Amino acid sequence: MTAPILAPTLAEPPDGILRRVSDHLYLNPPLLLGLLLVPPLLWIGIVYVGSLIALLIQSFYSVDEFSGMVKHEFTLATYAELLRPANIDIIVRSVLMAAAVTVAAALIAFPIAYYAARYATGAVKALYYVAVMMPLWSSYLVKIYAWKLILAKEGIITWLAGQTGLGPVLDFVLATPVIGGPSLSISFLGMFVVFVYVWLPYMILPVQAALERVPRSMIDASADLGAAPGPTFRHIVLPLAMPGIAAGSIFTFSLTLGDYIIPQIIGNSSFFIGQAVYAQQGTAGNIPLAAAFTVVPIVIMAAYLWGAKRLGAFDAI
Amino acid sequence: MRSDPVEPAPLGLKIVAAAGLAFLHVPLALIVLYAFTTEEKSYVFPPPGLTTQWFAIAAQRTDIWAALMLSLRVAAVATLLALVLGTCAAAALARARFFGRETISLLFVLPIALPGIITGIALRSAFNIMDFDFSFWTIVLGHATFCIVVVYNNAVARLRRTSPNLIEASMDLGADGLATLRHILLPALGGALLAGGMLAFALSFDEVIVTTFTAGQQSTLPIWMLTELIRPRQRPVTNVVAVLVIAITFVPILAAYYLTREES
Amino acid sequence: MPVAVRFTNVHRHFGAVRAVDGVTLDIAEGEFFAMLGPSGSGKTTCLRLIGGFEQPDQGGIEIFGRHAEGLPPYRRNVNTVFQDYALFPHMTVGENVAYGLMIRKLPRPERETRAREALALVKLNGFEGRYPRQLSGGQRQRVALARALVNEPRVLLLDEPLGALDLKLREEMQEELKSLQRKLGITFVFVTHDQGEALAMADRLAIFHSGRIVQIGAPVEVYERPRTRFVADFVGSANVLPPTYAGEAGAAAKWMSLRPEKIRATAPEQLAANDEASLIGTITNVHYQGALTRITVDGEGLTLRAAVPSDGRRFQTGQRIRLSWPASAMNSMDDDP
């Protein structure tokens, strides 16, 4: 046996106060965890959750009919007011719009996500990813503004319809009750298109992420077991994509439900939940009713999230 | 699916996917076109003529400059706060297992999972109750709240991909917590934090819903745009600002993409 | 020989799971010591207790006579080769190896010299400038080894170091690790679930089962004289004879192990020698393995597996056969499972 090649010549690393602090934290993982967690938790807890709770409490107050001042005593009167037919209309309208937008976004998103996950490789795939991410992160207002230009009476859609001789079709659509209006930029149809446009990337990305996780061999196995492409898609690809669709729908549904800017800019005079909240807290000065209105999307989203969790949506975000 | 040979996509799928992407991008392209239109009063298409004069006119508008500067300052401060708080939260929650962990991580996601209007009105009424004056700082407070989650998501994803053994290896080799943070953790997290910061910046720069509730008399650039959208004064100038907003948000988004590219 | 690592009744529980449940153990200086056991048996937790990544809930750990409880990993003169190597991806091989020296604030030239020497020790001369992702699995393993050794640890911990390598490379590295350990004279503590590896490399080994050590000894001892049925079965393969069988033979009523290769197979009419036990049974399975043929025989209420040299004889299922073995080949075991 030869002498050890590495003679023991090394000193301990220098010691100091910080090193001793480190000892303490290392040997007390809960302490370290607490130190890390306390600042963000305080922030979210006090600034955010605190405000939310304060808001919810206010929904149990009511506004004095004569003075217009908020009465600070517990009552369910505001909730009774919330359940008036006019307000129920607003809620139903918002939920229907959110549902329609979610379904449309899922239908449009799926082929894009499927192509990107299954067929695109290398540079094309990277390009696809950027092409989806850019609109997702680019300015919300600019996107709405772009559609105001497009949907305007004098805008590109009218022009296109005129050029292709489809003007009567456009007029017919606009004349259709409920979805139509004087111009696309003042109609539910226009609003629907803008909602779908604005939230579409939020659907594409989770669906793509879910599809990426479907191993190729699984599709081959299904084919090997005798399934034609159609059944393979229905029994293998679609169920495995469901968590992604559920995750995406959390965004499309929630964001549509609470939005008040798109209905304000593109819509007609029918209110959506977001506008009702805005109007109640602003011009009407009825904070309790505004607060009660915000409870509606919270409750709906809580139910929605609970359902989505059961579908495994959180793994796909 | 990555390394397998890929058969060509069915033509129908290609067309549908391409149409979907076009749907996403044509509107943004139109905005750029409209910034050069000579038409002042309406959104007529096609533009009767093209000009670059609106850029010069917009550049002389002090209200635009003030809004732009406010937005940049708010975004910078909110991003900084979010970076600190989001990284702490990520470090605490990425691997630890303790009771209530799920609930806490849900809390951080809540500000973007719930509609912005709820965050906005909750903050506004809280500020009112506490007699806070609406100012630069109330805007920052609101923005930081929903920016935390962006940093948090990026940092958690990177931490989960980073072998916990790296930290143990560093300590095994004699490095204490601080040295490990400096030599191993921060370099490993660097790209993710930068990316998270960029996205948080873009998100804050662009935010309008919460801001309408937390801003006092001040206008951020999105608030300025919203006012113009509701009551248009000089449409071509708004078009120019829209292009400016696209340009300013695209830079950090692209940068963030390149920083996290190898992960996706 | 001085004791390098001493465990005194060490416990480490994770919630209700008793990962380490009262381990007492001495590892001598300069020893190549293996901790062997199935996954979840507590061997890795014991290694992590030595490294300082876990702290005992109860009991004492001494490293070269110094109490190690409450010392973080960076205050221990012990280094680890991690199962996934844990090379720092943003550093070159040279920087990885010199990391511990940088932390100790050695001047840069000396760091580089020492890192080069350490890399030479593991036959990676000239790899300083590469990044871990540019290396093969075997090379990464060597870098991890050099990175640990450069700090002159008195104990080197190896967590399944060969697990990620393919068979041929693994055998090569077994010999290399063994000769490296002899050359350096450092205590190696080695965790593995591969009994062949442990038998081939270790001076002594400890068999872990459910958080406890069931047997410690030299490889020959553990293989030839397994103390419990678990050891007999986990280290190599063994026939386990129930106490009832031994009782008939007149010995103490104990569980006994019998290695298949100790058993002879002959024609039923050929009698066993005086000092031999035997039984007659029917072959239920024949498994030809080249040098050896493994046969399974049912008879006299027992199922025995025998491994006999392939000498041209043909065995067939259903055939009647006599198995015989030296009485001394039967090893009495404790009643523990």
Description:
The complex is a heterotrimer of chains A (317), B (264) and C (337). Chain A is mainly α and 317 residues long. Chain A has one domain: MetI-like fold. Chain B is globular, with a radius of gyration of 22 Å. The two termini of chain B are 13 Å apart. Chain C has a six-stranded mixed β-sheet, with helices on both faces. Chains in contact: A-B, A-C, B-C. At the A-B interface, helix 1, helix 2, helix 4, helix 5 and helix 6 of A face helix 1, helix 3, helix 4, helix 5 and helix 6 of B.
In short:
With 317 residues, chain A is an all-alpha fold. In chain A, 73% of the residues lie in helices and 1% in strands. Chain C has helices at 43-51, 93-103, 108-121, 137-149, 167-184, 195-201, 219-224, 229-234, 243-248; strands at residues 3-14, 17-28, 32-36, 58-63, 66-67, 78-81, 155-159, 187-192, 204-209, 212-217, 239-241, 256-258, 264-266, 276-288, 292-299, 302-309, 320-326, 331-332.
CATH architectural group of chain A: Orthogonal Bundle
- The spatial strand order of the largest sheet of chain C comes to 6-7-8-3-9-10
| Mean pLDDT figure of chain C | 90
Let me know the number of strands of chain C: 18
- CATH homology superfamily name of chain A: MetI-like
Q: Characterize the largest beta sheet of chain C: strand count, sense, and whether it forms a barrel.
A: 6 strands, mixed
Helices and strands of chain C, in order, run as EEEHEEEHHHEHEHEEHHEHEEEEEEE
Low-confidence stretches of chain C: none
Q: How many domain modules of chain A?
A: 1
The CATH topology annotation of chain A reads as MetI-like fold
Using the coordinates above, name the CATH class of chain A: Mainly Alpha
Largest interface: A-B, 97 and 89 residues
Mean pLDDT over the full residue set of chain A: 83
Structural class per helix/strand content of chain C? alpha+beta
* Helical proportion of chain C, percent range: 25-40%
Radius of gyration of chain A over all CA atoms, rounded: 27 Å
Strand content of chain C: 25-35%
How would you characterize the largest beta sheet of chain A?
2 strands, antiparallel
Q: Please work out how many helical segments of chain A DSSP would assign.
A: 14
The N- and C-terminal alpha carbons of chain A lie at a distance of: 59 Å
